[in-house]
Amino acid sequence: MPEEIVEIENLKKYFPLKTDFLRNLLSRKETYIRAVDGVTFDVKKGEIFGLVGESGSGKTTIGRLLLRLTDPTDGKILFEGKDISKMSQKDLRPLRRKMQIIFQDPYESLNPRMTVSSIIMEPLTIQGGTRREEMENKVAKALEDVDLIPPEEFLLRFPHELSGGQRQRVGVARALVLNPDFIVADEPVSMLDVSIRAEVVNILVNLLEKYNVSFLFITHDVALARHICNRIAIMYLGKIMEKGPVENVIFEPLHPYTRALISAVPVPDPATKRSDVALKGEIPSPINPPSGCRFHTRCPIAEFPLCKEKEPPLIDHKDGHSAACHLIGKSR
Amino acid sequence: MALLEVQDLRTYYATLRGFVRAVDGVTFKVEKGEALGLAGESGCGKTTIAISLLRILPSGGRIVGGKILFRKEDIVQLSQNDMRKNIRWKGMSIVFQGAMNALNPVFRVGDQIREAILTHEPNIKKKEADERVAKLLELVGLEPSRAKNYPYEFSGGMRQRALIAMALSCNPELLLADEPGTALDVIVAAQVLKLIKELKEKLRLGMILISHDLSIIAETCDTTAIMYAGKIVEYGDVVTIFKEPLHPYTQGLISAFPSIRASKTRMTSIPGSPPDLLNPPHGCRFHERCLYAMDICTENEPEFMDVGKDHYVSCHLIKK
Predict the structure, then answer these.
(1) What's the Cα-to-Cα distance from B42 to each of B95, B100, B227, B231, rounded to whole Å?
(2) Which of A309, A327, B49, B223 has the most CB within a 10 Å radius?
(3) Contact predicate A242/A258, CB 8 Å
(4) Strand A48-53 relative to strand A214-219: parallel, antiparallel, unpaired?
(5) CB-based contacts of B263: which residues, under 8 Å, 6+ apart?
(6) H, E, C per residue of B62-126
(7) Nearest Cβ partner of A277 from B194, B239, B268?
(8) Which residues contact A25 (CB under 8 A, 6 or more apart)?
(9) Are B260 and A271 a contacting pair at CB < 8 A?
(10) Cα A188 from Cα A60, distance rounded (Å)
(11) Using H for helix, E for strand and C for coil, what is the string for A167-182?
């Protein structure tokens, strides 16, 4: 058995941009939003891999690509060593039992007309092969696993009768009921109140320990990623800028973007004064991303013309800690 | 006397099922050049306090008790007309939550700011107002020429800056900022908060910053009030509250926050969810979720007491 549960290689997803009729006539060239533009990483068995970035950096698109909820433009997705990037939906269905997703917004991802029981049972019904009685047991067990105890009290409730934290736990139970090996958690706590975030996060960590489920954890919150992930990748405009073990990336960041991102995170301690935010402006449009290094337009240490002309490759610097920047190792 | 003193403010919303006691007896003050952070979970009454101060409550909402002393004058007693003429925008103004949607999409940004100026200071000529718009935009770090742009031509951070410029257009003394960082990306949010902090110091503004994010309050504010279910449970200067939180809710809230600098730990949560404000629990409103609740907590409401150095807390565990 390979050590990696999911590997992606040079994954790309371009969304064609709708232009008006006249412009289509005048130029044959189609324009694309390059949401994901050549991303390579792997998720090992039994780890939480964090994907961190600002909005529009392509995090969610990667999560959806991994489960083939959207089809890649180019590149490979290996799930347990098998290439699923071009597999037909029919062949994929049995594999979906092993990979699930938790969506961001628990207020929109649960059907308001279905009871908790039928929401969690739906994946079992779709996959088939389970008797009714057994399905009910599995649903109850999934509810227990997410601390909705006693399960009988929740089975017949509707989503509007639950609090935000409880809803998201139903979302987790739905992903869990098929006993998956791999779960994509797409910003699972960003819509929840701070006081209950930890509840949901701890459930995920427990699942990892109990069932050895691997996670791709998508988040914009670096501080949160720091506390639960084993390894993280920092994304910017559809590319990975830096990846590696979480401690190394947070405490010894190599890439100037990572440094800026970390310095922008507020610290809940009035005594520490944080260093000034070095970055100006906002993330550019992925329609015409900057040439060379995508970050050069905002980079405080960019060297011209090098950074503008040549795209830096993602190079391993030490123990799997890699970064894509021309200037690492040079005097800064 | 402080710029703003709120004493025992109560704001209720009338609904078919009874009164929702959104704000139920809060007391605090804001000095000139001082920032107060209002923190708490959603639904604890933070925003209701802000719109009570400006007296722009939606229908059904009413201030049923307490005083709001702004520049020594109790503005609860003022007529809507007086509020409009003397208080709103000129005295205190607000930066609403959700910069994305707070600007009118069909008017130019500069015209919207100018409208605020001309409405509240009718004696000013259009040209003077335009000059002031240019200055304001510069103050918040935008190119004055961008006044001609429409909101859709602005990014999220720029819209937030434009809203701040608008809020400052009539030289208020008190600025209310409702979740100014939320909905913005980390780096942009940090830029906006830095701007707010600089403006506060430059213009000696009194400020109330509403946020659910304690780390933002820790970095931006001088004092903070931690709210729970319509009440302030702990109030004091920001360093004391973060270093020695006394109320179990404050302690829980602070430890629920992941810090990027701290070592890797399992996060803690506060079990349960906030109470229904139609029928708030007897005694201390937090007792149902409190780890240290005693019998007295279910019966008597703890008083809001001074534990020294302008640090107030309302909890039975704390002895005078």
Answers:
(1) 18, 20, 10, 13
(2) B49
(3) yes
(4) parallel
(5) none
(6) EEEEEEEEECCEECCCCCHHHHHHHHECCCEEEECCCCCCCCCCCCCHHHHHHHHHHHHCCCCCH
(7) B194
(8) none
(9) no
(10) 12
(11) HHHHHHHHHHCCCCCE
| Superfamily of domain B4-91+170-257+268-313, CATH level 4 | P-loop containing nucleotide triphosphate hydrolases (3.40.50.300)
Note if the bond before B245 is cis, omega within 30 degrees.
no
Question: Which H or E element spans position A250?
Answer: helix A246-251
Tell me which of A168, A261, A269 to substitute to probe the interface with B (most B C-beta atoms closer than 10 Å).
A269
A99-158 pLDDT, tens digit per residue, is 999 998 898 899 999 999 999 999 999 998 889 999 999 999 999 999 998 999 999 999
Contact B187 A55 (CB under 8 A): no
Return the number of other C-beta atoms located less than 10 Å from residue B22's C-beta.
22
In tens, the pLDDT along A51-68 reads 999 888 899 999 999 999
CA–CA gap between residue A283 and residue A297 (Å, rounded): 9
**What is the rounded distance in angstroms from the CA atom of residue B186 to the CA atom of residue A261?**
7
Amino acid at A143: L
Domain ranges of chain A: 4-267+275-290
Angle at B22 between CA B272 and CA B278, to 5 degrees: 65
CA distance A94 to A73: 23
pLDDT band at B222; cut points 50, 70, 90 = very high
Q: What are the residues facing B24 on neighbouring strands?
A: B10
Q: Which residues pair with B228 in a beta bridge?
A: B231
Task: Supply the pTM of this predicted model.
Answer: 0.86
> Which chain A residues are within 8 Å of B261, Cβ to Cβ?
267, 269, 272
3-state SS, residue B231: strand
Sorted by where each begins, the domain ranges of chain B are 4-91+170-257+268-313
Q: Is A251 helix (H, G, I), strand (E, B) or coil?
A: helix
- Spatial CA neighbour of B31 closest among B65, B66, B69: B69
Q: What is the ipTM of this complex?
A: 0.79
Query: If pLDDT is split at 50, 70 and 90, which confidence band does B9 have?
Result: very high
Sequence-distant (6+) residues with CB within 8 A of A260 are A277, A278, A279, A298, A300, B187
Determine the Cα–Cα distance for residues A314 and A53; give it in Å rounded to an integer. Answer: 17
